[in-house]
Amino acid sequence: MKKWVVFAFILVILLSYGIPQLNVKSGGEGKVNIENGSLPSKDSQMITVSKEQMYQGDLLLVNADYALHQEGIRSDVVSLSDRSDLVKGFGLLDPSIQLSQSIVKSFGKMVAGAAKDGVNHFLINSGYRDADKQDQLYRDMGHDYALPAYHSEHNLGVSLDIGSTEAKMEDAKEGKWLEQHAWEYGFILRYPKGKEEITGIKFEPWHFRYVGRAHSAIMYQQDLTLEQYLDELKKTKGLSITLDNQKYTVTYYPMVGDSVTVRVPKGEHYDISGNNYDGVIVTAYA
Ligand SMILES: [Zn+2]
């Protein structure tokens, strides 16, 4: 066969199949279907998003390479020992623990879900940390287990270290349950085993991060860390995921100068989050 014939043949295959459908891990709760897909222009509109948005939202990447910006810190951080209405079904290691109120609510739902499976010895060991506390921890723990001030997700108020009152997390039922089910509640195991090269942090079976349910589902099903997921979003023209009959469309837009124009559905059914380095992600739910 002539070279151009082979080339044309490959081209036809590529065009007819488009980008192959992403692999979906089998098992897990709920019905999950992930495909490539963008928001249809019908029923949507273009809006302009300013650069500040790049540093706010559920999908901020904060690690050794990217420091958080002040506007990324959750404004609803509360002291949990003052909020017995929020602390139900789990304990606190000490009374100074703080966390974003909306995230502790999601954590409470997760703990209630685990209790239905007979897993009910949860403890929050650490939540939000301010820069001084982070700095102290970094000096005490070293760079394998802690990050400098402004480079830890704990400084955002969206991450927490979860323990079990029964055993170490790697052995505890609580740890095993979370590894399988946290994604159903919008959380990810942020530093998994085998991904140390990507995250730069050793396996931490206790550290969970809130990213929102559509994203946690995709990351869990595709076995992606936050670093990998944000990279993946940049490569695709958009992803759609159907979770229990709710369809979400996730689209990345690179920031151009001080703003970017993005497509959103008409009405309020969307969230925008920055990635904290070069763009924003629109999550539309129809
Ligand atoms: Zn942690």
UniProtKB/TrEMBL annotation:
<dbReference type="InterPro" id="IPR052179">
    <property type="entry name" value="DD-CPase-like"/>
</dbReference>
<dbReference type="InterPro" id="IPR009045">
    <property type="entry name" value="Zn_M74/Hedgehog-like"/>
</dbReference>
<dbReference type="InterPro" id="IPR058193">
    <property type="entry name" value="VanY/YodJ_core_dom"/>
</dbReference>
<keyword id="KW-0645">Protease</keyword>
<keyword id="KW-0121">Carboxypeptidase</keyword>
<dbReference type="GO" id="GO:0006508">
    <property type="term" value="P:proteolysis"/>
</dbReference>
<protein>
    <submittedName>
        <fullName>D-alanyl-D-alanine carboxypeptidase</fullName>
    </submittedName>
</protein>
<keyword id="KW-0378">Hydrolase</keyword>
<dbReference type="GO" id="GO:0004180">
    <property type="term" value="F:carboxypeptidase activity"/>
</dbReference>
<dbReference type="InterPro" id="IPR003709">
    <property type="entry name" value="VanY-like_core_dom"/>
</dbReference>
<feature type="domain" description="D-alanyl-D-alanine carboxypeptidase-like core">
    <location>
        <begin position="97"/>
        <end position="212"/>
    </location>
</feature>
<dbReference type="Pfam" id="PF02557">
    <property type="entry name" value="VanY"/>
</dbReference>
